[in-house]
UniProtKB/TrEMBL annotation:
InterPro entries in alphabetical order: Bact_Sigma-Reg, PAS, PAS-like_dom_sf, PPM-type-like_dom_sf, PPM-type_phosphatase-like_dom
SUPFAM superfamilies: PP2C-like, PYP-like sensor domain (PAS domain)
GO molecular function, one term: phosphatase activity
Alphabetized Gene3D superfamilies for the sequence: PAS domain, PPM-type phosphatase domain
Keywords: Hydrolase
Heme in keyword set: no
Residue ranges annotated for the PAS domain, each copy included: 25-77
UniProt xrefs under CDD domains: PAS
Segments traversing the membrane: none
Origin: domain of life: Bacteria
Protein name per UniProt: PAS domain S-box protein
Organism whose genome encodes this protein: Streptomyces alboniger
Keyword DNA damage: no
Region of interest (Disordered), residue spans: 162-187
Length: 458
C-alpha cells in the first residue's frame, strides 16, 4: 500500500499510529482532575476549601486564590442551600461518612443560581479519625430545567383537571337546576291546566238536559290547554214545552274571554226568560256588551246564534236569530243538507243599535239542525294544511247520498261524524271548536238521548 507521495507504507506506519494514540492517553492525573467534566473540591472537616478543580471554578466564575483557604463549601451555596447544608447535609455526612446525589444550588460570581447534584465522602486516617471531605459536583441545570418543565406541565394538568371538575360540577348543578325547573314547570302547568279545566266547566254546561221528543249532541274542543276557550253554548227550558238554545264565539282568549263568555251566557239566559224572541235576546246582549265594554273604550264583542225550539207532533218548529255567526246547517233525513240563512246579523256588542234578523224552519223525523263555530270551517285541511275546510265542504259532507239514512242524520251521528273529521285534521285544527246538534228522532219510540263530547287539545 503506498502514500500519495509514492513512499511505501507498512509495519512502520502502523507503529507510528499506535505511538500517537498512546501519547494521547498519557494525560497526567492533575490534568484529569482539573479538566474533568464535573467539579471536584476537597475541604477540611470545618468546610474550608483546600482544593478545587478548574471545572468548578469555571462554572462559578471564580478565581482559585479567592476560594482555596479563603472560603468554606457552604459559602458557595445559596441561602437555602446553606441552610440545608448546615441542618441536614453536614450532620448526615458526619454520621454516615458519605452522601450521594444531593440536590443543592450554588451561587456564581455574577449572582446566578447553579443547580447541582453533590456527592461527598469523608477520608479517614489510619486511626479512623476524619481528615477531609472529598466532594463531587455535577451540573444539574438541564435536569432542573426538565424537572421544572415537568412540574409546570403537572401543575397545568392539575389545573386543567380542577377546571374540568369544576365545569363538570357546574354542569351537574345546572342540569339538576334545569331538571328541577322542568319538574316545577310541569307541576305548575298541570295545576294551571286543572284550574283552567275547572273554570272552563263553569263556562259551558257539564251536560245537556234531556228534551222530550228531541235528540241532542254536543262537542267542545279547546285549542290550547293553557288558555280558556272562547266558544260557548247552552240549552235550557223556557216553559210550556219550549226550549232556548244558543252557541257563539267571543273575541280574544284567556281570562278576558272567560269573563266575556260568562257575561254573555248569563245575559242570554236572563233575556230569554224575560222575552224569548231570538232577535230581542240578541239585542239585549248587544246593549249589555256595548255599554259594558265598547262605550268604555275597551271594545269586546261576540258572534252568536240564539234560537227557540218547540217539539210538536210530527213537526218541530225552530225560530232563531244570528249576530255575525256562521249560518246553521239543517241536515234532512233523506240525505239533503242546506244552510238556514240569517242575513244582516251584525257582531254582537260592536254597535250601539245593531239589528238582527230572524229565520224559521221545521224539523221532521230524522232531521237535525247543527250549530257550529268557525273553528270547524276554518280548520286547515289537506296534506299541506294550507286550505280551509270551508262552508261548501261542510255542506257537501252531509249531502253525500251515501249518508242518506235516518241514522246518518241523527244528532248523535252528525256530531260523531264531525268529531272524527276534526280529529283527522290533526294540527290543522288550531282554534276552539264547538258543535251543538238538535234533532228529531226518526222513530218516536226511540228515547231522547244526549251525546255530549268535550275535548281538550292533545
Amino acid at each position: 500500500m503506498c502514500r500519495s507521495g509514492g513512499e511505501p507504507t507498512g509495519a512502520g506506519g502502523a507503529a507510528g499510529t499506535n505511538a500517537a494514540f498512546t501519547a494521547l492517553l498519557e494525560d497526567s492525573a492533575e490534568d484529569l482532575y482539573e479538566s474533568a467534566p464535573c467539579g471536584y473540591l476537597s475541604t477540611l472537616m470545618d468546610g474550608t476549601i483546600a482544593k478545587i478543580n478548574a471545572t468548578l471554578l469555571d462554572w462559578l466564575g471564580m478565581e482559585r486564590e479567592a476560594v482555596v483557604g479563603e472560603a468554606r463549601f457552604a459559602d458557595l451555596l445559596t441561602v437555602g442551600g446553606k441552610l440545608y447544608h448546615e441542618t441536614h447535609f453536614a450532620p448526615l455526612l458526619r454520621m454516615q461518612g458519605e452522601l450521594g446525589g444531593i440536590a443543592l444550588e450554588m451561587k456564581t460570581a455574577d449572582g446566578r443560581r447553579l443547580p447541582v447534584l453533590v456527592s461527598s465522602v469523608i477520608k479517614y486516617g489510619g486511626q479512623g479519625e476524619p481528615l477531609l471531605i472529598r466532594t463531587t459536583v455535577f451540573d444539574a441545570s438541564d435536569r432542573r430545567a426538565y424537572e421544572q418543565e415537568l412540574l409546570r406541565r403537572r401543575e397545568e394538568a392539575e389545573q386543567a383537571r380542577a377546571e374540568a371538575e369544576r365545569a363538570r360540577a357546574e354542569a351537574e348543578r345546572s342540569r339538576a337546576e334545569a331538571e328541577q325547573a322542568r319538574r316545577q314547570a310541569e307541576a305548575d302547568r298541570e295545576r294551571l291546566a286543572d284550574a283552567l279545566a275547572a273554570l272552563q266547566q263553569t263556562l259551558v254546561p257539564s251536560s245537556l238536559p234531556v228534551v222530550p221528543g228531541l235528540e241532542t249532541a254536543v262537542y267542545y274542543h279547546t285549542a290550547s290547554p293553557d288558555l280558556l276557550g272562547g266558544d260557548f253554548y247552552d240549552l235550557f227550558p223556557l216553559g210550556e214545552g219550549r226550549w232556548a238554545f244558543f252557541l257563539g264565539d267571543v273575541s280574544g282568549k284567556g281570562p278576558q274571554a272567560a269573563s266575556l263568555t260568562s257575561l254573555t251566557r248569563y245575559t242570554l239566559r236572563a233575556a230569554a226568560l224575560h222575552d224569548p224572541e231570538p232577535a230581542v235576546a240578541l239585542a239585549t246582549l248587544n246593549a249589555v256588551l256595548h255599554d259594558r265594554y265598547t262605550a268604555g273604550g275597551d271594545p269586546r264583542y261576540c258572534t252568536a246564534i240564539f234560537g227557540v225550539i218547540e217539539p210538536g207532533e210530527g213537526r218541530t218548529t225552530i225560530r232563531l236569530a244570528s249576530g255575525g255567526h256562521p249560518p246553521a246547517l239543517v241536515v234532512r233525513g233523506e240525505g239533503r243538507a242546506d244552510y238556514l240563512p240569517t242575513p244582516g246579523g251584525l257582531l254582537v256588542g260592536a254597535l250601539p243599535d245593531a239589528s238582527f234578523s230572524t229565520a224559521e224552519t221545521t224539523l221532521g223525523p230524522g232531521d237535525t239542525i247543527l250549530l257550529y263555530t268557525d273553528g270547524l270551517t276554518e280548520a286547515r285541511a289537506g296534506r299541506s294544511r294550507e286550505s280551509m275546510f270551508g262552508d261548501d265542504a261542510l255542506r257537501a259532507f252531509f249531502a253525500d247520498p251515501a249518508s242518506a239514512s235516518p241514522a246518518a242524520s241523527s244528532a248523535g251521528e252528525v256530531v260523531a261524524s264531525l268529531t272524527e273529521l276534526l280529529e283527522g285534521f290533526g294540527e290543522g285544527l288550531d282554534d276552539d271548536t264547538a258543535l251543538l246538534a238538535l234533532g228529531v228522532p226518526a222513530r218516536r219510540t226511540a228515547p231522547a238521548t244526549d251525546h255530549s263530547t268535550t275535548k281538550q287539545p292533545r
